[in-house]
Amino acid sequence: MAKSKTFMLSILRIALALLFSSFAAAEEEPRFDRNLSPKSLGLRKEKLTHLRFYMHDVMSGPKPTAVKIAEAQMANTSSSFFGLLDMADDPLTAGPEPESKLVGKGQGMFGFADQNELGLVMLFNFAFTEGKYNGSTLSMLGRNMVLTAVREMPIVGGSGVFRFARGYAQAKTHTLDAKTGDAVVEFNVYVFHY
Ligand SMILES: *[C@@H]1O[C@H](CO)[C@@H](O)[C@H](O)[C@H]1NC(C)=O
Ligand SMILES: *[C@@H]1O[C@H](CO)[C@@H](O)[C@H](O)[C@H]1NC(C)=O
Hints:
46% strand; AOC barrel-like; apoplast; mainly beta; Dirigent protein; signal; 1 helix; Allene_oxi_cyc_Dirigent
């Protein structure tokens, strides 16, 4: 008799435990993370794309595309302009001429980050408007020693067709007006993306 009573009690205890645990499950926090298969985001084969374009950095004239936005007090006493920061919204074209086909904009900041040489920290988004790239962006973050023939900077990510992008950009000065600072820079960008 006592035995079956103990048995009944333990059944009851288990039933209650189940009931409360299902209540607890219902009150769980919203889900924060989950594993996904790449296919569920439509990601299939990774591809490698090469883009070549020219960035027009106009510092002079009535319509500059790059402007000074900040300057440390000592920047004008530094031979390398250390402490100067510029903001750019530069046209990107398919060829080196300004009238060449517009393929996007290079928007970002470049700061003079080297105390001894002309060395920039580049923080740029390339916002494309051409064909299947229209609306997609690539983000570049790197060091630009402007007097070096070819400067390499990492592509750290992208959006649109460039989701999950990674790669590098090589910048080569095409023309530079030493007096005004106006420059046309050739970019060769190599990116993996889906
Ligand atoms: C450098 O800039 C400061 C302001 O930031 C100004 O007071 C000073 O006169 C400038 N010096 C020269 C040599 O242009
Ligand atoms: C790019 O997309 C925008 C917005 O969808 C559209 O207005 C524009 O005409 C497109 N540009 C080109 C060159 O296709």
